[in-house]
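Hey,
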Amino acid sequence: MNTPLEDYRNKGSILSLIQSNLRQYGMFTALVLIMILFQVLTEGILLRPLNITNLILQNSYILVLAIGMVLVIITGHIDLSVGSVAAFVGAISGILIINHDMPVFLAVILSLLVGAVIGAWQGFWVAYVKIPAFIVTLAGMLLFRGLTMLVLKGKSVAPYPQSFQDISSGFLPDIFGGSTLHMLTIVAGIVFSIIYLLIEARNRKTQLRYDFEVSSKGLFITKIAAIIVLINVFTYVLATYEGIPTILLILIGLIIIYSFVMKKTVMGRHVYAIGGNEKAASLSGIKTKKATFWVFVNMGVLAALSGLIFAARLNAATPKAGNLFELDAIAACFIGGASAYGGIGTVGGAIVGGLVMGVMNNGMSIIGLGIDWQQAIKGLVLLIAVAFDIYNKNKLAS
């Protein structure tokens, strides 16, 4: 028979877990349901190995933007310039690599630095001059779109060398020499599953040591088993095609780093505090201007990376690059649980939101739905997500 302390430790139930994480779990469930729906409507095409790989490649640059955008939204701001910044940095990379034969590695570093400078420029006006981010980044959207046209002189620059294209379309080689299956991908899935299991077990042990509330043992085991099965099914599907795309490794690295920063570091706590109540955060000793400035610098770097990924996938630097990227990134964050009022949001939620948008785009394209209907449906989904956020906030306040 359990002691009162054990009952307290294990009182977490499925209901309380869902209630405390309603939007994140709701969006993950929505993602699964949307995938099942389009799997049926597309007669099995959606989840074929080739199409799963294409989903990763097609949405990678939006997911990179969403990671940076969720930090901006958590601080209570918005960035409308990221699509134009991505296009401008892509144009810079094209000029350096194609026109001036600069080594790819050096050109990538310089392009990311350009993104950081752009982020610093916009962050200065937002953080220190106190011009609303909406105005600053709207001006940036127009400014950098115009500069893109000037740099490229209205023409596309192509092609990039293969080493640059591999950023977006390359795959890890199979060092185990699999024939029908990419064995490195299978091994990677198993290793990642073991690491995940060890991390979750250690976290639960730490929470129990300090008498924190945790989910029941049965629910914990069920959750771990489900995620491990999901990881290995996903890697198996990838292994039946070309294996792990290079861009997937970049995305996983970014997700791990930014999730750690937001959950485990002082900087992450400061970002949430600023979004929750900037004046209170300032009075508590947080350097709100400095933190906001660096959030925009970070956004500039990730916008630059997104521009490089898109240019590598397109194999060209074009004046039309980055069109509506900012809207997809913002929509991904809100659909994934970020609050329109700031102070709430997660990197994982933004990724789930981006995948929701990506699966919808891909599925609607496969079944032949026109771009007009696609835009209308995406707009409706975004409106419902934000309305749900406001409903929850009002419900908690009452």
